[in-house]
Amino acid sequence: MKKVPLREKIGYGVGAIGLDLSYGLFYSFLSLYLTNALKVSPLFLLILAPIARIWDGVNDPMMGSIVDRTNTKMGKYRPWIITGAVFNAAVLSILFNIAGFNMKTVGVYVMVAVFYVLWGMTNTLADIPFWSMIPTFATEEKDRNLVSTIARTFSGLGQGIVSIFTSMIVVKFAGESGKELSELSADGLSRGFGKWSIIAAAMLVVFAAISVFSTKETASVKSDEKFSFRKALGVIRHNDQLLIFMLFAMISNCGYYMTSGISSYYFLQVRGDFTLQSKFNLLGSVGSVLSILVIPVCDKFMSNRSTYRLSLSLATAGYIGMAVIGYAFGGNVLALGICYLIASIGIGSMFVNQTVMLADIVDYGEFKLGTRNQSLTFSMKGFLQKMAYTLQSVIMYSAFVATGYDFSKGASQASANPAADSAIMFMMFVIPPVMLIISHIIFAGKYKIYGTFKREILDSVIQKRAQLEEKTPGNAE
Q1: For residues 12 and 154, what is the distance between their CA atoms, to the nearest angstrom?
Q2: Collapsing DSSP states into helix, strand and coil, what is residue 187?
Q3: Nearest-CA neighbor of 255 among 67, 385, 137?
Q4: How far is the C-alpha of 468 from the C-alpha of 473, rounded, in Å?
Q5: 3-state secondary structure (DSSP) of residue 84
Q6: Beta partners for residue 75, in sequence order
Q7: What is the pTM of this model?
Q8: Is the pLDDT score of 10 beyond 80?
Q9: pLDDT tens digit string along 103-130?
């Protein structure tokens, strides 16, 4: 198969910046915005998150199958990437500007619920086809590693922009001069997040357009099967390695989301200084950048399996270090940040490896079931990430409800509710490493696409593709 030029791989990867701007705002800061700016009850969010995921369980595989059956002059994936980006940008902007509609409490809750679900749906429109393109770029392991690394590098850049600059940008746009984020009023938080979300939404569309118009799809195979939820479930259920992947990836991703989601509350409420989060996240972003070196370096003397285990070990060690610093040494921010840097190197490499694994699982599905189901398989990536976020949300909101955490009191709550402080610290420092360890155990014991078996799968798929192209050359785009 002809290799795609590096410039095209970079053009493709740029789209991940915008996707992760939206993704990062939603997963890392929406909770803080809803509870502290809109004063939405954590009990309501505890109920809303699982309901939204139930719908995603229907919507995501349906979208994957629709993409698999798409056949346009632009290809299978690119039309959906740009369409999804535009809709997701609109929903993101509205979600973070709900306060501007001046509605009563019931109206606010209804609007939060509707656009919370819509964000997941529109994100799926862009996310599934974006990541599903990877197997069309390359069949060989090293080439897939390069494409995945480039895309994840830009993804990390998007996450870094959100995690480092959000607090500064929100304060700048809040219109309350001389105040830090922890001192902003609910109206100030609403204004700051509202304007920042519009900028992020515009960037999402721009970067998606760059990705779409700088790439060409190759080796895309259209499926003529009509969508059947029963068949989709059958494909997922009979692909045992996909199910194993979803389990260990969901658990490890939840550990990461727990840190990124609860850190806002830790620095704002427990430490009383939200500016510390930017310093903490800056070191985490440095780790994410350094993570791009892990796979190219390890490729020279390690298999993907060994590299993934190394990634999980680095992440676990970093999180354990954070726990020691947080509990035994008063939570020194520089020391916490250094440990988070180590954890982020592991997490960033873990994400790249997971993307490569999904490409391998697509091949395994074709090898075992006889049908490729590329986008349907990649739809599970977005779904498992949402499930990981939901698990994190359920744990977090349950803790808030159990400790009687009152968001209307703002940062003063830190000194008024020691039980909430303890719960926040437990979620920040203990839960992430425990989840990484559990994930590592499942992966080591159950995932089998590696070594000679992986080579056997790839050879079979390549041979089948060659035979198909000989019979009907027009099937390959």
Answers
A1: 10
A2: helix
A3: 385
A4: 7
A5: helix
A6: 72
A7: 0.76
A8: yes
A9: 888 999 999 999 999 998 898 889 888 8
